[in-house]
Amino acid sequence: MSYQAPLDELRFLINELVDLEKATGKNDLVSDDLVFSIWEEAGRFATGVLEPLNRPGDCEGLRFEDGEVKTPAGFVGAYRQLTEMGWNSVGLPEELGGQGLPWLVSSPITEMFSSANKAFNMCAGLTQGAIEAINLIGSAYIKELYLEPMVAGRWTGTMNLTEPQAGSDVGAIRTRAIPQPDGTYRISGQKIFISFGEHDLAENIIHLVLARLPDAPEGVRGISLFLVPKFLVNDDGCLGNRNDLQCVSIEHKLGIHASPTCTLVFGDQGGATGYLLGEPNRGLAAMFVMMNAARLTVGMEGVASAEAALQKARAYAFERVQGSKAEDPSTAVAIAEHEDVRRMLMLMTSRTRAMRAMAMVIAEAQDLCESSDDTAESARQHTFVSLMTPIFKAWATESAVEVASLAIQIHGGMGFVEETGVAQIWRDSRICPIYEGTTGIQANDLVSRKLLRDKGEGLSLLVAKIRTTLQESQAFATELRKPISALEEALNSLEGCAERIIALGDSGIENIRFISVPFLMLAGNTVGGWLMLQCAVRALQARGSERYAEQTLESWRQSAEFYSRYTLAEVHGLERQVLNYLEDAAAAPAADIFRY
Amino acid sequence: MSYQAPLDELRFLINELVDLEKATGKNDLVSDDLVFSIWEEAGRFATGVLEPLNRPGDCEGLRFEDGEVKTPAGFVGAYRQLTEMGWNSVGLPEELGGQGLPWLVSSPITEMFSSANKAFNMCAGLTQGAIEAINLIGSAYIKELYLEPMVAGRWTGTMNLTEPQAGSDVGAIRTRAIPQPDGTYRISGQKIFISFGEHDLAENIIHLVLARLPDAPEGVRGISLFLVPKFLVNDDGCLGNRNDLQCVSIEHKLGIHASPTCTLVFGDQGGATGYLLGEPNRGLAAMFVMMNAARLTVGMEGVASAEAALQKARAYAFERVQGSKAEDPSTAVAIAEHEDVRRMLMLMTSRTRAMRAMAMVIAEAQDLCESSDDTAESARQHTFVSLMTPIFKAWATESAVEVASLAIQIHGGMGFVEETGVAQIWRDSRICPIYEGTTGIQANDLVSRKLLRDKGEGLSLLVAKIRTTLQESQAFATELRKPISALEEALNSLEGCAERIIALGDSGIENIRFISVPFLMLAGNTVGGWLMLQCAVRALQARGSERYAEQTLESWRQSAEFYSRYTLAEVHGLERQVLNYLEDAAAAPAADIFRY
Q: Do residue B434 and residue A418 have CB atoms under 8 angstroms apart?
């Protein structure tokens, strides 16, 4: 069974959950038909071009020889098609040569491409981040030379943060940048875990590299950002000499076998030529712009893996005949008829829907933030996105691994055999809770910055939205009894735990960090429950409208029902985990309980 | 870091949690020193011989050519050492040539060997199961010819159940057995997923094959068991002609790359020669003896994977320096100092301890069952083992995947790189919730047979044991306040849910099956909490005894404390999941809620 873009799901969400016109302020570009024809076209590209290379790419992997990386068969051609059709630049501004699509339209395309071929899709995603950073802080000269070929996809981009001693602790980086009389810098050092740090898809690779100037302050306040091209670029835009950097090895990984993870050595011959981007010692702030965008993209990769896994599991469950029902023991049935398989399918479906709905409300806020003329409104949307970023990144990616694991389980023994492809989805998905900041890092960001530093401002916005949905749902108090009551309980848990965390504050930060991950998961489950209820309300409102098949509307109600009974039920356990440490904080510091 | 047998853990459990002398009735064999010297020796074999082949075996994998399977380099030699030293037969009766060690002594050896090299260790485990089945129901002639070389390890054994159309539904098998005038049978059919169905470790392979006699009743009541050797065996025990069966392919799998998973075709040349084992049409009962033993072994593989993952994660967490603490930002610390890493380490440690403790009380019951002269007592122990088998198999294996995933998470980006070995543990562990009956199958066994059919008899035994521990713990009501109260709550949840399930009975079986997995997990978490409390009580009792380091005793208290605050907290969520379906059973059948 080949991957199919989830167009019905997207149609419901874009029409019922979010307000595309209001979010973008453009009613011409975003008329229904145009959006759907873009998505249909993207879906065809995903199914026809990207997915056929997914398993072969995983099996063949990459070849590394003499500092060069050869991607699997077909990748070069697919990349050429991608860029010729402009799929690599759908979300980039039109003034840069991109398609200028709003987040609400471009995010689902990211999902589709990542579902079809996660490893391949990473290259264009990283390039987009690099383009945004250059556009934000690059000099006119740099922008003039670099942006056009990068937007066109002839050159790709990378993020160079990690070093052997500097992973989650970016402040520990040692790569050095020595100023030269001509205004350039000599860069030397080693970077590891650089995705698409070397490959054969494009003519040039533009590395954005964090490094330290001489006499820079220690830690994160002494880091600057440099643009370091693989091939130097002459003033006329033509490629010049090879720069002094090389890929010395690639990793042998658990998953995303077709995505090169490179160790890059800069300056073996005296120093790679680099160009300062933005202010000296202010590199981390710029990198964080990229990083936050990348975190949302990784969350979207989670949605993508879950959707791909769900499609395979559903197809298998309805095709595989095994066992019978008690009422008719002589007739073999598809395993989708068996209760526990149905439980798993419902869990996968409702969770994937909640993940995608979360992606959509974040994209809507991003669009509102960018389109609004009202500074205060724009700031509010930004605050909401900031709050949701760690929740979405961590919760959606942890959920993706779980959904992929359930897809293996539904396949039984066949799930452990690589040819069905679900094992690959599980392996590929496992990087998502790690890269661009682990789940633990996201959870610390949530409690330290988004709750404590911001005094719960973002959370209040979220809570207000949830309350609005709860009010609206009263019109369907009977049909949605359980989703409403379970969400009310979950919201109480979320608010109660958040209040305690804020009350403990910095003095209790150690105890808080012990339970920051369960708290984040509690928040993720609750937000998912809010969105499933919102979708169910819309589905009930749309009954009889002939816009959707009755079965479609009913399925949204079912998802809310299941989600509230199963995934919101977990909130009770998560709340206990949190309170079991916060309640005794004074009497029994977590540090004592967690001694090891 | 190389694997080390968890001897300190085992020393505490064997001395404090169980009563080896009482369980086996033998005080000579099982004097402390002998047991520990056996375990030390086994640990040396695991560390010195088995583990060095683990990652190379995973990387090299198997070669399949012309129907033959070549195991990775070193496996043939290691297997020879294993059998020469008698490690393959530690649990087999002395009268068969085995070492006759009780379960309490042999199970930890299974754990060690599987921790060190899960793929390799499967071969001897399967052989042991086949020996037990032959010994149970084989004719004198069969036993005479086959048992000695199998116990010696010169020949190995397999279980042949699965066929393409018959996985979880064993009743659907089609392999045929035609009686011959000489008393043998001609076997023809195809079997899939046969572990070690073909390999180069031994001279002969003895397949135990489920097949149907002509005119056998349909379904599970028409299945017979046959012994089908790869090479026919002459009356003098020498190998004769090659039998008419061949390995036609092996699977390309997610994990256990060094364990051949074979498709076997029987009877391509007219029929493989087979020998009936036991009564016609009664094959499934015999196979279930093997299967139940295999389920416990798979649960033990879960313990093994968790221990291996924990050792790697702990070593990495104390070695990897990254970031600093708030109170001293200028000093980098090992990541084990960071709160979320400690949470993960404590979760892994306490869960692994609970899993191993569960294995030990099951092994104790097996020993009591076999050693007791009192039939009623023996039956009680059997009932307890029967109840615990699905719980241990499913809960310990699901836990193992989770613990292995946490080991990846603690390693950060390095966890996704295959060279650290944690990715392999995660991949290898993923088969455990699938083979020998999926988690869903175990959960159905628990609710359908162990609760409903047996009217909760096994559960009462379990509850009584838990209550005894709760009583005993009152002597430490202050020190163990939280572990006690959390276990009391969890026990109430377990009993409450079980009562509802039994009350609903067969009429509500459909609703029950929707939540059989959450119910099983609730039971597993609760049993783990019982055993962690029991260990903590023993640790507090042993204070000042000089038998253990104070730190060791304290670590058991810590594990109980953490487990009660974290893993028992999950019971609240699991209970909600169960009750959310059982409570409304009449008003809203689960089948409606789970419609898809």
A: no
